[in-house]
Design goal:
heterotrimer; A alpha/beta (390); B alpha+beta (87); C alpha/beta (298); B: alpha+beta; two-stranded antiparallel ribbon; C: 298 residues; Rossmann fold; 8-stranded mixed β-sheet; globular
């Protein structure tokens, strides 16, 4: 059924279709509408879940950790400071190989305090061992949440999955979203969670034991391997979703007008909409330009990126995050991927835009396309600063 | 052991760890004045003391006893004595 | 009658690496005898977690999980919610455990949340009065004038300068159905309180005084004696409360001067050097006397 839905409602409805047993959260802008919608669904009897409104994000993540260890499907959502506060628990959930799904309504990190969108929060937790997907629009956010449970619960993955959605830009805007009417079809796509090891009085295992030097590295290696393996699982989950529900947004990456492109813009999340519009304009004026969307940030789609970019001249990476003391993050990883494959003919230019909710305009993109033709391997340079505040 | 799901231990697997090697002293149950109060069982931090209230015969598991001496200290009738372990 | 074979069936088994004379392992053993096999337990980071689950070993014969230092109560909230969601809560006790630091310092927020939401969870704090697992640093439950490695005694100090935080009263302030204080020195009293807690729906708090051989610096054989002296001096009042009302106290059978308790422990030996130390012992006696008065221990 096609409906005009707020992004948060689309996400909540996607989560409802996955029928999690336990949901736990703590409010933080711009995640609030998601958990408000979910609590209303529980209050109305439309979702049979234990909904626990806890006293902090740390406890939200800890509560779903405990519930997940009992073998039930779990969900939480947060943003920004909340995600940073949860971080040690996210590491722990991943280390214990628990298939928790969570939404991050991406938001800037304090100080200065700022409630608007960028991706610095997500970048701060990129090494936790959680799979990190990024949705481009409300429809993809809806679909991606259903896929996320399938990926997390795969027996050879068993890792938390974080679905990143741009705060406000997606969570608070209304778009047409096609929702799934038949929950039986979702149940077919997403069978009940079946955990081999769980907290169960009939089979009383000990979880979270002390891993001494003789075993800790192997434990991390297995997590690392599972993360690598999840690449196939993410692609399969997207394909199977397409077969059953008709919608597809790429597996780990997606291409837009890439066939003969000499210049390619790489980005994640909602900014891809603006980029695609700008690229359409540039194409009309004869520019050979395309877009590469990164849909899975962790695991990193190295092979897909290399094969998409190896024959182009210029790559422009639009990043809503910065690594102080270095520069770009996504751009550095792309440059490293090409270097590893001995491709040195491509100039990878990383630009920092849109921090703390600063608009990214089509004009920004036109300017960068011209700049990038003259520049080489820019490393996270800030774009569009107001000179008066410097 | 399956590592795929993080490191998980089997129930009670610690029994394979014979902590008796910790002990410098071990108890001797003299069986002279024992009243069968069971305090030695209650107070053993390891749970290695066993016996029978009725027969008033008690003993301990030397595979695990760490030799803390609480049983001897707390015995209300001084019927337990700690002796050095010959190593 | 208890046979050697039966001792191996304890739900908290021997073979752990706790110190010789550890009052915490003694208490856990006694507690598990009452709670039984239909129990799911969480543990905060700390001695108990480290000495009972060195992979691949585990002393637990019940489902058990350790996550982090400060989230034992939150993890237990999730366990309880999952059991409810599966319709399997009936007949299963959810036990959350932590040391004094994991409970009253870093874990206080998660614990307060669990209390306030009134999850059907029994939270047990094993109070040994400092961060013993990391090497005897002070916590919010370290007693007045105790030496720890971060509240050392010296020319300018008699050790920990603040009185012990009264954690059970913080629990009671949440109006949870049951709060109790017990001691490793009184195993029947401890087991009676665990039994009662097990029978009550909702959030329960039990704090157990567990002397620590290396942290308090005494001979291992004195663990029980010290736990009993803490009670008999009035320094560790044992009581039960329902909601905000105290319903029973363990009366002191023979009042003992605090000196008897302090002198057996290396963490108080700096108080026995001179006149100034004697004055400090008087202050500790005052704390005990105030407890006796306030809780009606005599």
């Amino acid at each position: 059924m096609k409906q005009v839905l707020e992004g948060s409602m689309a996400i909540a409805d996607g989560v409802r279709m996955a029928e999690p047993h336990v949901i736990s959260a703590y409010p933080i802008t711009p995640q609030t509408h998601i958990v408000e919608h979910l609590s209303q669904m529980v209050a109305d009897g439309d979702l049979k879940s234990e909904f626990i409104m806890v006293e902090s994000e740390h406890s939200a993540a800890s509560t779903v950790l405990g519930a997940s260890a009992c073998g039930v499907r779990t969900y939480t959502a947060t943003a920004s400071q909340g995600l940073l506060y949860m971080e040690e628990v996210v590491y722990n959930i991943a280390g214990m190989r628990l298939p928790v799904v969570m939404t991050v309504a991406n938001r800037a990190v304090s100080a200065p305090i700022n409630i608007w969108n960028d991706m610095q929060d997500a970048m701060a937790i990129r090494d936790t061992g959680a799979i990190m997907l990024v949705a481009e629009n409300n429809q993809e956010a809806y679909d991606m949440h259903i896929q996320a449970f399938k990926i997390a619960e795969n027996q050879d993955v068993m890792l938390p999955v974080i679905v990143n959605v741009d705060g406000f830009v997606l969570t608070h805007t209304f778009e047409v979203v096609e929702t799934i009417d038949d929950i039986e079809k979702v149940r077919q796509y997403l069978p009940p969670l079946n955990m081999e090891y769980k907290l169960d009085v009939e089979n009383p295992y000990s979880f979270g034991t002390l891993g001494e030097p003789s075993v800790y590295m192997e434990s991390r290696y297995n997590l690392y391997n599972a993360m690598n393996f999840s690449r196939n699982v993410i692609i399969d989950a997207a394909r199977e979703f397409k077969d059953m529900f008709g919608r597809f947004y790429g597996g780990l990456t997606d291409s837009y007008k890439m066939d003969d492109a000499q210049t390619v813009i790489v980005a994640m999340g909602s900014v891809l909409g603006t980029i695609k519009d700008a690229v359409d304009e540039l194409r009309e004026s004869g520019k050979k330009i395309g877009v590469l969307k990164v849909r899975s940030f962790r695991p990193f789609p190295e092979d897909e990126i290399v094969s998409a970019l190896k024959n182009v001249k210029n790559v422009i990476v639009l990043e809503k995050a910065i690594c102080p003391g270095k520069g770009g993050i996504l751009s550095v990883e792309i440059r490293d991927s090409l270097f590893k494959h001995k491709i040195n003919s491509v100039s990878v230019n990383g630009y920092t835009l849109g921090l703390g909710g600063r608009d990214i305009t089509p004009k920004n993109i036109y300017d960068l396309v011209i700049r990038a033709e003259k520049e080489e391997n820019v490393d996270g340079e800030f774009v569009g600063l107001s000179q008066q505040y410097l | 052991m399956d590592f795929k799901v993080g490191i998980i231990a089997m129930p009670g697997a610690a029994l394979s760890n014979k902590t008796g090697s910790f002990a410098n002293e071990v108890p001797v149950f003299k069986h002279k004045t024992c009243t069968g109060c069971n305090l030695c069982i209650y107070f053993c931090p390891e749970g290695v003391v066993y016996g029978d209230k009725k027969t008033k015969i008690y003993d301990f598991d030397s595979d695990y006893c760490k030799g803390c001496g609480i049983c001897a200290e707390e015995c209300p009738v001084d019927d337990i004595e700690m002796v050095l372990v010959e190593k | 009658m208890l046979t050697k074979e039966e001792t191996h069936n304890e739900l908290f088994t021997m073979g752990h690496t706790g110190c010789s004379g550890c009052a915490q392992s003694m208490s856990v053993k006694l507690i598990m005898e009452i709670l039984g096999k239909n129990t799911i337990a969480t543990s905060a980071t700390g001695c108990l977690e480290v000495f009972s689950t060195r992979w691949p070993e585990s002393s637990w014969k019940i489902p058990w999980i350790h996550s982090l230092f400060e989230n034992s109560a939150a993890v237990a909230s999730g366990v309880e919610a999952a059991l409810k969601a599966m319709g399997k809560k009936e007949g299963i006790t959810v036990l959350a455990q932590g040391g004094d630091g994991g409970t009253a310092d870093i874990g206080l927020q998660a614990l307060s949340g669990m209390f306030e939401r009134n999850h059907d969870v029994l939270y047990i704090c094993y109070d040994n009065g400092a961060y013993m697992n990391t090497g005897y640093q002070r916590s919010g439950l370290t007693p007045f004038d105790a030496y720890t490695t971060t509240s050392p005694s010296g020319k300018e100090s008699f050790g920990n300068q603040r009185p012990k935080k009264y954690m059970p009263e913080i629990a009671m302030a949440h109006r949870i159905p049951y709060t109790a204080v017990a001691s490793a020195g009184y195993p029947m009293d401890l087991q009676k309180k665990v039994k009662k807690a097990k029978s009550i729906m909702g959030a329960k708090y039990l704090q157990v005084d567990v002397p620590c051989v290396p942290g308090w610096k005494y001979e291992p054989k004195y663990s029980v004696k010290l736990a009993q002296l803490a009670v008999q001096t009035g320094l560790y009042p044992l009581f039960e409360a329902e909601y905000d009302k105290i319903i029973s106290v363990k009366k002191i059978s023979r009042k003992v001067p605090v000196e008897e308790y302090l002198k057996l422990q290396g963490r108080f030996k700096h108080l026995f050097k001179d006149e100034a130390g004697r004055a400090e012992i008087e202050k500790i006696q005052k704390i005990a006397d105030e407890n006796i008065e306030r809780f009606g221990l005599i």
